[in-house]
Amino acid sequence: MLSLGFEVRSIAIDVILPVGISFYTFQSMSYTIDVYHGKTKPERNVIDYLAFVSFFPQLMAGPIERAHHMLPQFRSQRVFNPTLAADGCRQILWGVAKKMVIADNLAAPVQVAFSNPSSLSGADLALGVFLFAFQIYCDFSAYSDIALGLARLLGFDLMRNFAYPYFSQSVGEFWRRWHISLSTWFRDYVYFPLGGNRGSRFMQVRNVLVTFTISGLWHGAAWTYVLWGFMNGLALIPALFLKAANDKGAKATDVPGGPNLIPSLGIFIRMVGTFIFICVTWAFFRAATISDAMMILRRIAMLAPAEGSVSPMLTVPNVPNLIGAVFGLLLIEWVCRAHQHPLAALSKFPRPVRWVVYTALIWLTAISGTLAAGQFIYFQF
Prior knowledge:
Elements: H1 21-36, H2 46-53, H3 56-59, H4 67-75, H5 82-115, H6 122-153, H7 171-177, H8 180-194, H9 201-219, H10 223-242, H11 265-286, H12 290-302, H13 319-335, H14 351-368
Helix pairs in contact: 2-4, 5-6, 5-13, 5-14, 6-11, 6-12, 8-9, 9-10, 10-11, 11-12
C-alpha cells in the first residue's frame, strides 16, 4: 500500500484470558452435553454446580472431570480419612519433586536445543528432544499429582490423569495413559459423535484424523500443533486395519509392560519404538515452526555435526546429572508401575523406611530444585 501513498499497519489484538480457561470450558461443556443427552440430571443446587466447575485443585490444568463423577461427591457428607489424606500428601510430595527437581531443571537444556537448532549437532538435538519428552511429562504429570493429592486431603476423588505413558507398547496405548481426562473427553464428545469406529474404514479413518487434528488445534493456533495431532492420528490408523493383539483390551489401569520385573524382548522393543515415535511428534509440538522441527529431525537422522567446536549443550550446567535423574525416574516408575504413583508403594513398608524416603525427597527438592517461579507448561493451553 506504500505505492498509494499510505501505510496500513497490522493490528495486534491482545486478549487477557483467565488461567485454565480451556479446562474450565471443557468441564462445563461436558456437563451441558451430558444434561442435553440425558446422561446427567441437571444440578438444582447452584453452589454445588459452581463448586464443580471451579474446583480449585484441578481448575488450572485438569484433570477434566465429569459431572456424574464429581457432583455426587459435593452432595455427600465428607469425613476426614487419615489413610486417604496420607496418600494425598505422598502424591503431592512426589508431584512437587518431579516438578522442581526434574521438569524445571530440564527447561534450560531444552531451551538451548530448540532456540537455535541449526547450530547443534544431531546428537545434541536428539538429547534435547529426549529431555523435552521428560520435561513436559514431569511438568504436567506433576500438576496432576498435586491436584489429586490436594483433592484427597479435602475428601474428593479425582480421576487419574497419567498412567506411566512412556511404558506404552503402541501409540493407542500411549493415548490411553497420557492426559487421560482430555483423551477420553475428545473420545466421548468428538470421536463418538462423528461415528467412532462404526461405518466404513474410510469413515473410521476420517473420525480418527479429525479428532486428533482438533486436539492438536486445542493446544494452540499454530501449524506445529495441528501437525502434531495429525501425526498421532495417522499412527493410530494401522490399528484400525490390523487390530494388533497387544492393543486389544488394554486399559490405563493395566500394569504397563506386564507384571514381570524384566519385560520380554518383544515388549521392550515395542515400548522403545513407541517412545521414539512419540519423541518425533514432540519435536513438532515444541519447535517454533514446522521448518524448525523438520530441521531438527533431519539433523538427527544425518548425525549432523555442530557448527562450532564446542556444543552449546555442553555449556548448560548439570546436563549429565539431569540425564541420570531421568533414567532414575524411569527405573523408579518401572518398579512401582503397579501403583497409581511411586510413593504409594511405600504404604506397606515400616514407618522408619517411609520417613527416610520422604525426608530424602524433601531435601533433594530443597537442594536440587529450581526455586525460581516456574509456570506449569499446560497453563498456556
